[in-house]
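Morning. Coffee machine broken again, so started the prediction first thing and wrote up yesterday's gels while waiting. Chain of 192 residues, entered below exactly as on the submission form.
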Amino acid sequence: MSRKFWKDIWDKKGESNSKDLLYLDGYEHLKIDFDSKDICNKIIKLMDIKPGESILEVACGAGFLARELQDYNYVGIDYSKTIVQKHKELFPLHDVAVSESNSIPYGENSYDNVFCFGLFQYLPSDVYAAQTILEMKRVAKKGIFLGDLKTETTRKEHYVYPKNKLIEDGFTISPCLYDSNDVERFNAYCKV
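Came back before lunch.
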């Protein structure tokens, strides 16, 4: 799937007048309780994030999860300029910037913890996904977390990174954070 297909969707969401974070960050279609505080608490626990540690969120969107991380040294990046602008409009104190996930503009070991949630299904290829993982590892001091991965596509435009490749690369797999009955979604965590 072309990178442009998804970028156009995110750019249009950012250009909208909406302030609905579920819509802006692509979760409006879920028919379950999708609680940002609960998801963040689970990420914090899985990554063993301590108060005061730095966090980089890759593909931060308009701030659905970021709003729960204000007690941490939080920075977010996203490749959609309009979504980053929307994020800044909704959360003016957040430090967010425009960046591709496979070319993170920060130095080695810049952040204690680096995570993404719901990013991988929108990546264009295996090469891009592998580059994203390497970049996340490069800027992380403690570990990286890849959240809301899929075992199979739910629409033809989605991308699926092989779960077995993550396991081979030393990732620990955990179940879906927001729906324990969903066996087609999982997370991956790796210490660096």
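Residues 68 and 154 are 28 Å apart (CA to CA). Going to sketch it on the whiteboard this afternoon.
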